[in-house]
Design goal:
By secondary structure, the protein is mainly beta. The protein is built from no helices and 11 strands. Helix content is about 0%, strand content about 60%. A hairpin with a 4-residue loop joins strand 7 and strand 8. Strands 2, 4, 5, 6, 9, 10 and 11 form a 7-stranded mixed beta sheet that branches. A 4-stranded antiparallel beta sheet has the order 1-3-8-7, with no helix packed on it. The chain is elongated, with a radius of gyration of 14 Å.
Length: about 120
């Protein structure tokens, strides 16, 4: 199995910054894609930023220019730096990884989520 542990998040005023990180551990053979999703109350979960299988980085249009995704491949950690936060960024942020385990199984894994709240 693969475990994703998120840290960071919290409460910030509009215009402020926060960062979240996610560490993947367990029986990981390879990670094909890894990134962040978010879900606001009453809304569907949406992709925020993600490293794709090809190595490129995708961002949601709503966060381009404000959020930056980075990673430490050696440690299976990704970081999301969030600047110029707005109240509409308030959501539970989930780490996601599409990974292959040592058993050969390939699955989509999720973290437990971390709350990001932006006050106006």
């Amino acid at each position: 199995q693969v475990q994703l542990v998120e840290s960071g998040g919290g409460l910030v005023q509009a215009g402020g910054s926060l960062s979240v990180s996610c560490t993947a551990s367990g029986s990981i053979s390879s990670i094909d894609a890894m990134g962040w999703y978010r879900q606001a109350p009453g809304k569907p979960r949406e992709m925020v930023a993600s490293f794709t299988r090809s190595g490129s980085t995708n961002y949601a249009d709503s966060v381009k220019g404000r959020f930056t995704l980075s990673r430490d491949n050696a440690k299976n950690i990704i970081y999301l730096q969030m600047n110029s936060l707005q109240p509409e960024d308030t959501a539970v942020y989930y780490c996601n990884a599409f990974a292959r385990t040592w058993s050969g199984a390939q699955n989509n894994f999720w973290g437990q989520g971390t709350q990001v709240t932006v006050s106006s």
